[in-house]
Sequence to fold (206 residues):
Amino acid sequence: MSLHEMSPAGFIAAPAASQTGRYAEASDRTLVTWMCDGDTTAFEEIFRRYETRIVAYAARYINSTDLAKDICQEVFLKLIAKPPSTLIYDNLSPWLFRVTRNLAIDKRRRRKFEITGEDVGMMEAREDRTPLKTLTASNDAAVVRDLVNRLPDELREVVELRIDGGVSFKDIAIILDIPQGTALWRMHRAVEILRMQWRTYEPHKV
Fold:
């Protein structure tokens, strides 16, 4: 019997409490491997290990805790979407902090444009977007809304809170009583499903 069970939404259900100790003891490389196999608990453990440090590091660049938290969310979404193929000494921190630094510098540069009015056109063109907003911008919003309505409930409610309500992932976690890492994971999974379904979209017939 396998250790985990796949849920209908496409990710692996959380393990029993007696099994959680193995996640805390696992190396970063092992956790990334499990994460790539769809194990949300492995991703949550990575998030738990690094969230506070990444927020603190990003805040040094942009002098804003709120923006640093936004950067932290972007970093982990990038980790889910395209994890590193190699790790230095089985350690994920060099990759995470390099991505954090790049995002923080980019956001600091855009904030400078906002304050000084420089390169406004370029700043607006590069405005931050969530993956779903990017999808919506490039396609028919009504079609995207129909596809969102077809998502499994646990994915759809995260999308609606994030996009329609503008709710932060931290608050989504509180509202839905789930770990913040799970909220990020569900958002990523929802976007993956929406992109796949867009290619074969057929409207519901009345």
